[in-house]
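Suppose you are handed a protein chain with no further information: no name, no annotation, nothing but its sequence. What can you learn? This example shows the usual starting point.
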Amino acid sequence: MNNTETITALEKQAEIKREYDRKYMEDYRKNKREKYLKSQKDCYYRNVEKRRAYQRDYDRKKRARLLEERRKKELAEK
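A reasonable first move is to predict its three-dimensional structure. Written in structure tokens, the prediction is:
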């Protein structure tokens, strides 16, 4: 009788440990996935900001170049 109680107790402990491990791994995977998605999102927005900054610089230089050409034409006409 004592032996079967011990086996039952060990089985319960093993079941509890399996359940704990399963939940731990689910949480671990979920956190890992969330971190990955967050880093991807941050990277995306960082790249968007870089593209916008590049486009602003390009547009600013283009406007400056066009103004310079316009001034040259006006000076040439006079």
